[in-house]
Amino acid sequence: MKLLSLNLGRATAVPYTDQPDGVTGIDKRPVDGPVRVAAPGPKGVGGSGLAGDAVCHTRHHGGDDQAVYAVAREDLDAWERELGRELAGGMFGENLTTLGVDVSGALIGERWRIGPDVVLEVTCGRIPCRTFQGHLGEKRWVKRFTERGAPGAYLRVIEPGEIRAGDPVEIVHRPDHEVTVALAFRAETTRRDLLPRLLPAGEALHTELLAEVRAYMANRTD
User: Fold this and answer.
1) Whole-angstrom distance between the N-terminal and C-terminal Cα of the chain?
2) How many CB atoms lie within 10 A of CB 17?
3) Count of CB atoms within 10 A of residue 222's CB?
4) pTM: predicted TM-score of the whole model, two decimal places
5) What is the crossing angle of helices 207-219 and 181-189, to 10°?
6) pLDDT digits over 78-89, tens only?
7) Which of 28, 119, 144, 163 has the fewest CB atoms nearer than 10 Å to its CB?
8) Type and span of the H or E element at 75
9) How many CB atoms are located within 10 Å of the residue 32 CB?
10) Which residues pair with 125 in a beta bridge?
11) How far is CA 176 from CA 91, 124, 202, in A?
12) Element (H, E) at 113
């Protein structure tokens, strides 16, 4: 398992984002590194966990629970076959393109060591948006991406440091539950009835998703 590509984005004006200023950092490109990784601060204040990576709208993106976004190269390869086009590392807006890691099958709270120093913790999956669809230029992309159910994973920074492309990825902790990124994604998007099944992940969940689970449980009438 390794970090195949380390990708950073710049703030760029585009015609397809739904943000008023028309600026996005979704177009991420591979860099050689090393790149500093650290917790950026709470959502709404902090941006990316990677130095030099643009997060343009902190109301919806970035922050400690979404500090780093990872996508498996294997998932990009599967989409390449379906779409009939090349998808370079970073094309999905991911910071980390991994090889040999079951990213969407990772457990919430699972911890990865990348290189000698950095430790990251899985918090949730990525919810597709209109900007993502515009960036890919594929019709019905949000629906197709959601139906596939392999969203990649957001991670928080547990131990800061530097990483670079080619660094090994080691899973150093697996929590004692069965709540995967893919399950959390389904519960958050198309199967709200699955939200109670996320409770065993507890505080490891993205704080906003955990609040959704608790609100759902509080409002149940069965």
Assistant:
1) 44
2) 21
3) 2
4) 0.95
5) 50
6) 999 999 999 999
7) 144
8) helix 73-83
9) 9
10) 153
11) 33, 17, 11
12) strand 111-114
